[in-house]
Amino acid sequence: MFAVVPAAGVGARMGAGLPKQYLTLQGRTLAEHTLGRLLAFAPLQAVVVAVADDDPWWPELAVAGHPRVTSVTGGDSRARSVLAGVAAVLERAPDARVLVHDMARPLVRLSDIQALLDHDDRGDGAILARPVTDTIKQADADTRIRATLDRSLIWRALTPQLFDARRLHDALLSALRDDPEAITDEASALEAAGARPALVAGHADNIKITVPEDLALARFYLRAQEEEGLAWQFV
Ligand SMILES: Nc1ccn([C@@H]2O[C@H](COP(=O)(O)OP(=O)(O)OP(=O)(O)O)[C@@H](O)[C@H]2O)c(=O)n1
Ligand SMILES: C[C@](O)(CO)[C@H](O)COP(=O)(O)O
């Protein structure tokens, strides 16, 4: 099994002076936190990281030289970065299963990744997700309520997302050709190809660091995980 980690974003919503994956949490970059956890997950043969072709920070990280880490050049969207990573996996292992995980989600629990594998029926794939607990409103263009949705059927997609590499590759190619804006995660590409991936409940602390206030939340969750005894051997 391989991991593909999209890490070629610029972090515009974070508004920092550098891409958010290189901001630090307790002295280590988000990238080191994320990769430290993935590399601690024994079933992963290798991790393919998609980085921007003009990224000067990536080569400076010791983890960039880890024997189970390789990098590819990402694309101008998350989906194209993932596609580049999956193509690299297929060159090495045509029958591989691939776990796609955002570099911007540094607090993923190994137990959640294992739960994803446990639910993987090697069919339509599976994703970590969270059932919503708030009331969900659908908005009109004038930011007024159009409808209230049935929240019992609404989940927030997280990562990792686990699929057959060839199916994911071909679904991404088709979806990027037909409706690229609609593809904001791997499952949406498989859905467009008619698949029905499974939803696997993951922990709420598997947050995506997106806007500045997410950093304080991440610091809180990291301390909470350490108090829970979830310490990872950093590579
Ligand atoms: N062209 C892109 C855009 C995003 N990503 C990666 O996809 C993950 C989730 O994307 P997001 O949180 O949107 O990151 P950014 O695109 O960097 O953020 P923003 O949209 O605020 O610029 C991140 O790890 C990001 O590095 C990527 O590999 N290639
Ligand atoms: C893949 C994802 O993390 C699932 O919630 C999300 O779609 C990524 O969105 P982003 O705008 O690329 O951060």
TrEMBL record:
Site (described: Positions MEP for the nucleophilic attack): R151, K208
Pfam entry (one): IspD
Enzyme class: transferase
Catalyzed reaction equations: 2-C-methyl-D-erythritol 4-phosphate + CTP + H(+) = 4-CDP-2-C-methyl-D-erythritol + diphosphate
Keywords, ordered alphabetically: Isoprene biosynthesis, Nucleotidyltransferase, Transferase
Transition state stabilizer (site feature) positions: R13, K20
Coiled-coil residue spans: none
Pathway(s): Isoprenoid biosynthesis; isopentenyl diphosphate biosynthesis via DXP pathway; isopentenyl diphosphate from 1-deoxy-D-xylulose 5-phosphate: step 2/6
InterPro entries: IspD (IPR001228), IspD/TarI (IPR034683), IspD/TarI_cytidylyltransf_bact (IPR050088), Nucleotide-diphossugar_trans (IPR029044)
CDD domains (UniProt xref): CDP-ME_synthetase
Family annotation (Gene3D superfamilies): Spore Coat Polysaccharide Biosynthesis Protein SpsA, Chain A
Protein's UniProt keywords contain DNA damage: no
EC numbers, comma separated: 2.7.7.60
Role played: Catalyzes the formation of 4-diphosphocytidyl-2-C-methyl-D-erythritol from CTP and 2-C-methyl-D-erythritol 4-phosphate (MEP).
Protein family per UniProt: Belongs to the IspD/TarI cytidylyltransferase family. IspD subfamily.
PANTHER family: 2-C-METHYL-D-ERYTHRITOL 4-PHOSPHATE CYTIDYLYLTRANSFERASE, CHLOROPLASTIC
Name used for this protein in its record: 2-C-methyl-D-erythritol 4-phosphate cytidylyltransferase
Organism: Alloalcanivorax venustensis ISO4
